[in-house]
Specification:
The chain has 454 residues and is mainly alpha-helical. The protein has 22 helices and six strands. It has helices spanning 2-6, 10-30, 33-36, 52-55, 61-71, 92-101, 119-122, 132-141, 146-151, 153-169, 177-194, 208-216, 221-232, 234-240, 248-264, 271-281, 292-323, 325-338, 348-351, 355-367, 401-405, 427-431; strands spanning 76-81, 84-89, 373-377, 382-383, 390-391, 396-400. The strands form two sheets. A four-stranded mixed beta sheet has the order 1-2-6-3. A two-stranded antiparallel ribbon has the order 4-5. Strand 1 and strand 2 (84-89) form a beta hairpin. The longest helix is centred in the C-terminal third of the chain and has 32 residues, at 292-323. The protein starts with a helix and ends in a 23-residue tail after the last helix. Its main location: endoplasmic reticulum. The chain crosses the membrane at residues 6-27. Heme binds at residue 445. It is a peripheral membrane protein. Its cofactor is heme.
Length: 454
């Protein structure tokens, strides 16, 4: 009797077949979006869309988008991610229109922004929606002036001295460059953004702050799932109340530092002091949205962004220099020209005389940009002036950094590490939207200096 109840009857089979048929028709209708509009597109797979190579572990997402970029010609092409159509822009002219000229229609990134799910991430400058984003951005812009950075230079020198002593102690030993860069940046951003000494160069045991930095960015299945949802499934973030990162400890450390500064009046000329000044300046004004929660969120955002991106940059730079001794020799000659002996002080100003070092870093950022792509959300229907194609409201737009940075149209022998390609500087490449490690337009990285002279 029970076995008979488990066997589907004719009606159940018909209903099940209809449901499968309806799902098939619906998925095919979604996946025909670009075909119906005459746009070339990457063939999608069920659920994974155009990201099968990423889901299967065959390709890192940035390199996958680069592969797709090189697969197509023309100014743009379409892809699908979890059933949603995305437009990937190949033309630098269109990139410039979207990120600069017509920014008002593409002012928000596509990342999930839900303060109820994650108040730290939801208040982050990187993710905030307009107009709140513009309000916070304007307040924070003055933090990243040359004058403010120069005030923190003594803190940077302290960290550099610790690094030098550590390296001297391990002379003629094999050193993990990525770990070395990670320790350096942990101490540097801890000093500047949290006002503490994290002592990462202590041999053993690993300090708690350093361990938290390692753990908070450790990649595991759940964290990868959360990151994917924040990037491509924002509704699921709100539904499941997903937190992007566990920032409980960092929040606690910042609040302790903040409490100490407020009680004692202690000043260190670091980002903590600058954030306190911003909060106090706007505390009793109509623009009082920059409260303590926003302060903590920005501090954590700058810390994570500065720690991970810059440690990667330092690591990759040292790696490329080790693989290209001719570049290393040229850089050493420049350093000894600017600092001929130990009596020459290391100052904020004379560091800026290292032109070849700037070229080396620029080339490293071309080869290893901070992020895999730029993303913007189309606010309302938008017609691309160059082609007449209409991007419909709500359509996400992506720009592959790997695609543009390795395009031989803009960079001769793009696979070659060649700092000389930046001998004339990179302002012309920024203007042409062919060099995008810091993004482009009003939503570019706030830490990017707009007055770089090369």
């Amino acid at each position: 009797m029970y076995l008979n109840s488990l066997v589907p009857n004719g009606t159940t089979l018909v209903i099940l077949s209809l449901l499968i048929l309806l799902c098939y028709i619906y998925i095919n209708m979604i996946h025909s979006y670009w075909k119906r509009r005459g746009i070339p597109y990457e063939k999608p797979y069920l659920l994974t869309g155009s990201l099968w190579n990423v889901f299967s572990g065959k390709r890192q997402i940035g390199k996958h988008f680069g592969d797709l970029y090189r697969k197509f010609d023309g100014p743009y092409f379409g892809i699908y991610i979890c059933g949603k159509p995305y437009l990937v822009i190949r033309s630098p002219d269109i990139v410039k229109d979207i990120t600069v000229r017509d920014f008002s229609n593409f002012e928000d990134r596509t990342f999930a922004c839900d303060k109820n799910a994650d108040d730290m991430t939801g208040n982050s400058l990187f993710i905030l929606r307009n107009p709140e984003w513009r309000n916070v951005r304007m307040k924070l812009t003055n933090i990243f002036t040359s004058g403010k950075i120069k005030q923190m230079f003594p803190l940077m020198l302290q960290t550099a001295d610790d690094l030098q002593h550590y390296v001297e102690k391990h002379d003629n030993e094999i050193v993990d460059v990525k770990d070395l860069a990670g320790k350096y940046m942990t101490d540097l951003v801890a000093k500047c953004f949290f006002g503490i000494d994290s002592c990462s160069f202590v041999e053993k045991p690993v300090t708690h702050f350093r361990k938290v930095c390692i753990d908070i960015l450790d990649v595991n299945i759940f964290r990868s799932f959360c990151m994917f949802c924040y990037l491509f499934l924002p509704k699921l973030v709100s539904l499941l109340k997903l937190k992007l990162l566990d920032t409980h400890y960092l929040r606690k450390v910042f609040m302790e530092t903040l409490s100490f500064r407020e009680k004692t009046g202690f000043h260190r000329n670091d980002f903590v002091d600058l954030l306190i000044n911003i909060r106090n300046t706007f505390a009793n004004t109509e623009e009082s949205t920059f409260d303590t929660t926003s302060m903590v969120s920005q501090a954590i955002t700058f810390f994570i962004a500065g720690f991970e991106t810059t440690s990667n940059l330092v690591g990759f730079t040292l790696y490329e220099l080790s693989m290209h001794p001719e570049c290393q020799d040229m850089l050493r000659r420049e350093i000894f020209e600017v600092f001929p002996d130990e009596t020459t002080p290391l100052t904020f100003d004379n560091v800026h005389q290292l032109k070849y070092l700037n070229m080396v870093i620029a080339e490293t950022l071309r080869r290893y940009p901070f992020g895999p792509f730029l993303n913007r959300n189309c606010k309302k229907d938008y017609v691309i002036s160059q082609t007449g194609f209409k991007i419909e409201k709500g359509t996400p737009v992506l720009v592959s950094l790997d695609g543009i940075h390795y395009d031989p149209t803009y960079y001769k022998n793009p696979e070659k590490f060649d700092p000389e390609r930046f001998r004339a500087g990179y302002k012309h490449l920024l203007s042409a939207c062919t060099y995008l490690p810091f993004g482009m337009g009003p939503r570019s990285c706030i830490g990017k200096k707009s007055d770089v002279k090369m």
